[in-house]
Model the fold of this input.
Amino acid sequence: MTAIAAIEHAGKAWFAGDSHVELEGIRVLQRAPKVFRRGPVVIGIAGLTVWEALWRRVSFVRQPGRDVEAWVFGEFAETAQREIKALEIEGDDRGECAALIGIAGRVYYVEHDGNPWRPAHGYWAIGSGAELAIGSLHTTARRKLLPRYRLNLALQAAAAHCTTVAPPFRFVST
Done:
């Protein structure tokens, strides 16, 4: 499992993620980061290995000048939904899969079926440590803290109380 957190700050989308996976009760440091770039999009992923592989291979192309919201809810969502459907993930495994994407300073949550939505608060988190990270992001939202510091606090809270989240943390911004 994991914790991926993202915030919108000063025209950028800031992301942080842990580096561990759990394999049959054993925590393993993963070499490939769970927060990474794919073209103009920063992606943070939580879920099955096949889900992770999908987000690493799919290309997202936004035409220059194309409205971000129209692109996310149009071409991006269509591509994500088509690719996710081809995976044929069923049952409880679907609920464990989620992604956060950042583009043009905005953060979007992508559900297990590929439907995106934008959090009204300007922050969100996914994975087994999501609730702890969201709580931390909420309590620091009105404080004048640097984005990386806020994200680090959120992931530290998740790591302190969730056995499936641990440093090192990776940080990426748009």
In short: Residues 71 and 82 are 15 Å apart (CA to CA). The mean pLDDT is 90.
